[in-house]
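For the sake of transparency, this paper describes our internal protein records without simplification. Such a record has a labelled line for the sequence and another for the backbone structure tokens. Nothing more is needed to write down the fold, since each code stands for a local backbone conformation. For reference, a complete record is included directly beneath this paragraph.
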Amino acid sequence: MIEHAAAKRTIETHILYSAHLGEERTIKVYLPPGYHPDRRHPVLYCHDGLEFFTHGRIATIAQRMQEAGRLVPLVIVGIAVNKERRNDDYGPLGVRREAYARFVMDECAPFVEDRYAIADSPQTRFMAGVSLGAAISLSIHLEDPVWFRRLLLFSGAYFRPLMERVREAGDMSGLEAYMVVGTGETNVDTKAAERDFLLLNRRMRDLLETCGADLTYREAEGTHIWGFWQSQMEDALSWLNHRAARVGE
């Protein structure tokens, strides 16, 4: 299915069957103004992907930035979440975490990059997530630090098992990440308990920097809601633009 959301904007919808997960997943693919199959484009994969489009307004913001010349033509892929199995898929101890990661790496990304004009370079492949979506983004980087090395991490749910995996990895010098968290995220009600996400993000920042990662870290006024993450979307895409444009120089 194709949605012509604006005169120069196209969003295509696909339903993929995942052998790793044993279920279908919807993905939405935003094509930028001037998209042409003869030109290779950077790509951004988003977990909780439909919410990135609806609540985060990522396509609208990217469109506006591209029309103003402030963002390279960018393909955005929203990977739908299975809401009933979100913790299983995204959580650091999730029973389907490895299967979900394999779906992204072995099924979703190859489908997108075979079908669309995507640049075949780790430097032009980005991934984004909020909360547990940020955690699975970092987990996928740990699984494949070459191909998924540039991350946009919003208010990451960096619980102890993921911290331990990063410590065990040791060398994180291949990672480039934009991290942002709200200063009001000190008492976030998760299913298990209330968590201080501000503290968790500060601890992960310190750990990743100690391990050699290239980080841009931001704190801004806000809480653990899509309204906050939407307000940070333009800055995150500007960070992406700087790196994607640098590859083309």
